[in-house]
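Can anyone check this?
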Amino acid sequence: MYKIVGVSLLAMGGFLCAGIMNKKIDRTLELTNGWIELIRYIKGQVECFGIPLEKILSECDIKLLRAVGYERAIAPKSFSEILRDDCLPDRETGALILNFTREFGKYYREEQLTRCNYYIAALEEKKRLQTERLPQKKRLNYTLWLSGCLAIGILLL
């Protein structure tokens, strides 16, 4: 009786761990979407008004900042206030975002717009790849965690 309860608890633990891993995968896609929207917003502000970065970020909608992982109530003045480890989707996408934040403000208006277009296109491609791989990764997480926990449970029986 207790062995069956133990195996059931192990299976539920595996299911829970897989769910946590899948939430992280979903968060990666959400952050990528958020950064695409933020760069589009910044591009629009530069294109239409030629506003400097501090003013762009201070006037930015808080929902847009929340979409990239910024959680403070006060508007940021620079990208360094937004960037943290948990606001970068994954290693490759994070490298693109870091490059954008380092380059922004160092070029003339037309070059800024060109760079915004480049990073939007690159992030859109990363988003497409993430979306394609999402169901496979979720299935793999559930399969590995559940089978691993059940294997341990069978060994304990």
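Reply from J.R.: I decoded it. Residues 2-156 form one domain.
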